[in-house]
Structure prediction request, 212 residues.
Amino acid sequence: MNLRLLTRYVALLLMSTASLLAQTVQAADETADALINRMSSEVLGSIKADRSIPAGDVARIIALVDAKVMPNMNFKRMTASAVGPAWRQTTPEQQKRLQEEFKTLLVRTYAGAVAQVADLSVAVKPLRAAAQDNEVLVRTEIKGRGDPVQLDYRLEKTSGEGAGWKIYNLNVMGVWLVDTYRSQFVPEINANGIDGLIATLKERNHANAKKG
Prediction:
């Protein structure tokens, strides 16, 4: 596996959920595959238009993620799945800190690769789902130099405020992101508890920040 290419694709994965939604109604009515297709196109345009993002400006990337990515993800579900069964015993404050540190870890880990994603394109495959399905799998291919690479999304249909399809897991080249992090988080929780995991994530984020 080419690790440089994988890093580029994960960087695109983190950014390709960004959208420029004009109305909540549009998000609620949009199909899951149409959402992924539109957002993938829009984020590539945003990267090309904002020179600070391809330059690796972490603060700008975090701001973009907060404004454009998080509203289209069920990040609480993603974090809970990565933490595993211990999530049920966490306090609201611990949940808040876990989500903050996990998001920072993801963004900082792949921020340096964002500069290389502008030459890529995304092809969304036909959606295989029934109209009444509330959870779907949207399959895509990342196309650029070399062979196409698989990039898939698991989404759930939500109701109420901010209704619409929300992403809760991503698959890069056959590896599910949440499952990968769970294999790292669970042993840490077993050894040092939830607060130990939070401390470890905070330390990793601090180290990544020092590296730039």
Remarks:
- The radius of gyration is 17 Å.
- The longest helix spans residues 177-211.
- Helices lie at 3-15, 24-29, 32-49, 58-69, 75-83, 92-110, 177-211.
